[in-house]
Amino acid sequence: MRQVLKDTSLAAVSAGFVAVLVAFTSTIALVFHAATSLGASPEQVSSWVWALGLGMGVGSIALSLWLRIPVLITWSTPGAAVIASAAQGVSLHEAVGAFMVCGGLMALSGLTGAFERLMNRIPVALAAALLAGILAKFALLAFAGAATHTLLVVLMLLSYLLGRRLWPRYAVLGVLATGVLVAWQQGLVHTDTLGWAWAQPVFVAPHWSWQAVLGMGLPLFIVTMASQAVPGVAAIRTAGYEAPVSPLMSWSGLGTLVLAPFGGYAFNLAAITAAIVLSPHAHRNPAQRYTAAVMAGLFYLLMAAAGAAVAGLLSAFPGTLVMGVAGLALLGTIGSGLATALKADSHREAALITFLVTLSGVTLWGVGSAFWGLVAGSLSLFVEHYKAPKPDGNLSP
């Protein structure tokens, strides 16, 4: 613990807070919608926040301290959309059974090493392009907010540019402070939503039905692994870290199995918010950057304890502020990802296709653009290089 405190900096605390702020404010409404679509009561919705916050907090802290690299665990955002769309005719008890099936499949993929073997076959250029495509969407939203809140976005951008010049380690913290002050002055912070209540976990016994398993459990597993696990691993590797993928997948599955009856429907590696704690903004020393993820884990635990009050607090901030902070914080990661993706001539076109398909946001059969970007890039790489002539005129095997 003494070493962790020594390694922690104000920038790490700031990065951890921003990552949690972005994670909760950007998708908490979708999680609430998923829970209420299953007929969850207000007490059960509060339990979902508790379970998700507990799983993300404990997972982020434990894994980051164990590996000494930034590992951020989050809920499955596309999974919440799957739950909401598949909720008709499914009871909350049957949904919990489907969540546990998803968790079991995730744990199995980690224990067998199948997912890690797949990740080891993905070229670094494609992984970097995939990550850049995911993050670029948030950067675009950050600047698109200028259409409705021009002064807020412009002043946040100016704060970022000045911060990068004068105090680069705390540039993102300056953006956050500027955004809050400007939003407050413009009356965009809605304090009427604020309130306080401790979370109370509510146990829901699982029931299993083949309809819920096939209609919700399997799609939840597929979209979580395709849309979050792949880019999550890509984010860690693009940042220059090596992590044992199989244990991370196993933990995600086991965490889901334990907390599913309380509302922890699916956990996995973060990608978008992970880029914030993986960025040099979080800590100038890569070896001490794990503390940003530890700080994020502590903030997750605080939000888990707050329960239903979290929604009121986070909804007080305007969406433009949240997206602005996220987008500006991710600029450096997007730039380095594109530089890595487009560096080698042999992978450049495939990486570009991966980036563009991912950035498009296309969804097919309930699977998001991150998966299809990787498929398109891999197909391009295969067509371009399969049995292509080598420089000496021979054909590759």
Description:
There is one protein chain. The chain is an all-alpha fold and 397 residues long. The chain has one domain (2-337). It is built from 18 helices and two strands. A two-stranded antiparallel sheet has the order 1-2. Helix 3 packs antiparallel against helix 13 (290-306) and helix 7 packs antiparallel against helix 15 (319-329). The longest helix has 29 residues, at 210-238. It is globular. The relative contact order is 0.22. This is Benzoate transporter BenE.
Can you list the strand order of the major beta sheet?
Answer: 1-2
Order of helices and strands: HHHEHHHHHHHHEHHHHHHH
> In percent terms, what proportion of residues is strand?
under 5%
User: What is the C-alpha radius of gyration, as a whole number of Å?
Assistant: 21 Å
The secondary structure category is: mainly alpha
**Helicity, as a percent range:** 55-70%
Q: Number of helical segments?
A: 18
Low-confidence stretches: 392-397
Please, what is the average pLDDT?
82
Number of domains: 1
Please tell me what the overall shape is.
globular
Largest sheet data: 2 strands, antiparallel
Query: End-to-end span in angstroms?
Result: 53 Å
Number of strands: 2
Protein name: Benzoate transporter BenE
Organism: Aquabacterium lacunae
InterPro entries: Benzoate_Transporter
Keywords: Membrane, Transmembrane, Transmembrane helix
